[in-house]
Amino acid sequence: MTGTLKGLLPIAIGIAILFVFQAVGGPSMFGAYQEDALLVIGINIVLGLSLNIVNGFTGQFSIGHAGFMALGAYAGGAITYYGAIKLWGSYPPELPPGTGDLLFVVALVCAGLVAAGAGYLVGLPSLRLRGDYLAIVTLGFAEIIRIIITQTEPVLSKQEVSQHSTLSLFKYLGGKSIFDRIPRVTNFFWVYSVVLIVIVVCYRLKQSTHGRAMLSVRENEIAAEAMGVHTTRFKVRAFVMAAFFAGVAGGLYAMKLGNLDANRFDFQRSFESIVMVVLGGMGSISGVCLAAVLVTYAPYLLRDVGLDQYRMVIYSLSLVVLMVVRPQGLFGMHEAWTVFAGEAGRRRWQSFIGTPKRWYLGVRAYARKVVGT
Amino acid sequence: MSALLEVAPMSLSFGGLKAVCDFSLELAKGELVGLIGPNGAGKTTIFNLLTGVYTPDVGSVTLAGKLLNHPERGLRPFEIAAAGMARTFQNIRLFADLSVLDNVRIATHLRARSTFWGALLKTTAARKEESRQRSHAMELLDIFGLAGRADEVARFLPYGDQRRLEIARALATDPKVLLLDEPAAGMNPQEKIALKGLIQLVRERFGLTVLLIEHDMGLVMDICERIVVIDHGVVIARGKPSEIQVDAKVIEAYLGAAPDAAGEAGAGEAGAGEAATDSGAKA
Ligand SMILES: Nc1ncnc2c1ncn2[C@@H]1O[C@H](COP(=O)(O)OP(=O)(O)OP(=O)(O)O)[C@@H](O)[C@H]1O
Ligand SMILES: [Mg+2]
Question: Which residues, other chains included, contact A294 with Cβ-Cβ below 8 Å and sequence gap of 6+?
Fold first, then answer.
């Protein structure tokens, strides 16, 4: 029991710090534009890390992550919007103080659970498939989710809601038009609390016997089975976990934007998460985080320097260059700190920054050239 | 005395090819038995049947009274591993990008006593499990002289070390029966002699029963108490090494097969005491 408490401590402390930071108005010191970028980065970190559990840890190739995100987004949005009207008879922004956040947390958890349930239903049969087949199934799943959402009815207003039963409300998700008026509760505190939890969960998983069992599936499925690893179980677990966090990310996303458009959950969005995993290095938690920051922040930077119209060109070019230079991803399968740790790490570090002797020789050669002797 | 491992006449066809035909075997606890035969005889296929990779067309595999494989009720490979059968692979199948330590630790997972949630919450049980796995793995690596390389990536180990790591990993599942598929393939004569000692050491230390596939006749004749010879999926001889060496059918099978295999049989026949030739290298 004390062990469990000790295990929860880092998360509790982190959330407490974030809470204080938010309470004293810390995030607003970045300015609205940068704060917005930070929220998107955080949500993308959650998406990247969750996909990393499937693609990076177990080595399965899922390319339908947007489907789980969409499920979470719509579930979360619907629960806060309709929940507030059903419970308090008012639009969410007009809620009494505190209740909005409570509803938000419930909505986030439900968003995760809905996506996780779908992950289980899709994963159980399809994880017996290999490679390309799994990719096709997950892609198809994401498309089906998107199309189903576009087939729903327009969102109901406060007056209309009372004429419908709670369950039937899930037919009214905005369809082809937009699901708007979702309360914008997502802020720095919520996003980074989730980021913190996801990082801790992923890291502990990777360091544990269960995480290693997942890695063994990626490394050699036949050997993993022969060594007693229930490969299907771990694949399904990874899939469900990934779906859960993608759902939560979807919930955060819905309540950050305040409106949802089914067409924003297309293949492009799944692809973004894949880029983060591949770029960061399959299974590398720090690598995926860094890649998520880079991939998300690059468009903001380009907009700042006025190169916005070349965004896609620069984006694809740098991807190509990075994949040529570092096909194994930024950190390969390692974590940032292990890349430069130990004996091998020292050598890598030295070839990167050089040694004092090399600095000296370099400076001397330069000085000679300048002086001309 | 009742056998630890019992194989009731078992057959398997791949399409028209009868890879294994009426293969039966009884292993008593603690025995070290050799399984030999020319290339393509069906030896690896028998291992795959024993470990549940394939389901037999007829026949069954029973370990310590537990039915493992059967045309209708076959267990999955990971269940068979849990029941106490571990193997190595002829074409090395390590977890290549993981560390040497991780390779062995993964094989201890099937006896893990901590839950998935425990790992995420980092409970006391999970911490204990981690240190238990680490010390168990290090103990095994120590036996195989790999403890100093625990943090190296398996892919970069020398070939001989990779073969020995495979055995260490198989032992980490805590097996009753150990199946070794050409463990000496690609090793040099010194390594082969060391391997011979290692097999005997772990066998005694862990009370193992061993079934050994090996093309190096010197090694097989030296350490096996009994030998089963198969050719074209059919058992053609069983007996003590001395009987096998002079068995007319065995000599014919090897001479009739690939020329280099004939050389091996010849070496065995000549009463090979020393580790012979580089015959294993062709795998
Ligand atoms: N999955 C498979 N599908 C079809 N044929 C197979 C399969 N596996 C093995 N075979 C065939 O079955 C026969 C026996 O193969 P096996 O690998 O068991 O031979 P082996 O005795 O281990 O040979 P070696 O000494 O070369 O390792 C061979 O003819 C092989 O081509
Ligand atoms: Mg073979």
Answer: A279
